[in-house]
Amino acid sequence: QVQLVESGGGTEQAGGSLRLSCAASGRTITSYAWGWFRQDPGKEREFVAAMTWNLGRTSYTDSVSGRFTISGDNAQNTVYLQINSLKPEDTAVYYCAAGPGGVGRSLRRESDYNYWGQGTQVTVSV
Q1: Distance CA 33, CA 91 (A)
Q2: Which of 66, 79, 83, 87 to pair with 14, CA 20 to 30 A apart?
Q3: Closest CA relative to residue 50, chosen from 39, 13, 38, 120
Q4: Whether the Cβ atoms of residue 7 and residue 78 lie closer than 8 Å to each other
């Protein structure tokens, strides 16, 4: 079992950058596939980014492609989400998630993940 703690959220102006962190404990991050999701109040939680260790793949939802980067640091046992060129529509609570990965899992669905962090708020001001 792995425990996840997100940090790095805050209020930033449009056009700025933030780096979200997801610190893992209990298991190494290479044991899982990873995803970031976000949720705005009154809306469904939506997929943002995902990565796998064994295949070295990353994927992004269209609205963040080219602006967001998911990565991991084995030494820190932490997964990151670098957010550049922030837009007001990026405002949401961001969650990291860990799952088994593997064939047949798109990693774009909440059901692909077993473990979730508590979330970190990102607010983008105009």
Answers
A1: 25
A2: 79
A3: 38
A4: no
CB 31: neighbour CB atoms within 10 A? 13
Mean pLDDT of the chain: 94
Inter-CA distances, 9 with 57, 60, 114, Å: 25, 19, 23
User: Measured in Å, how far apart are the chain's first and last C-alpha atoms?
Assistant: 40
CA distance 107 to 13: 30
List C-alpha distances in Å: 119 to 23, 52, 75. 12, 21, 23
Q: Convert the pLDDT of each residue in 97-108 to its tens digit.
A: 999 987 778 899
Closest CA to 36 of 75, 84, 93: 93
What pLDDT is recorded for position 103? 74
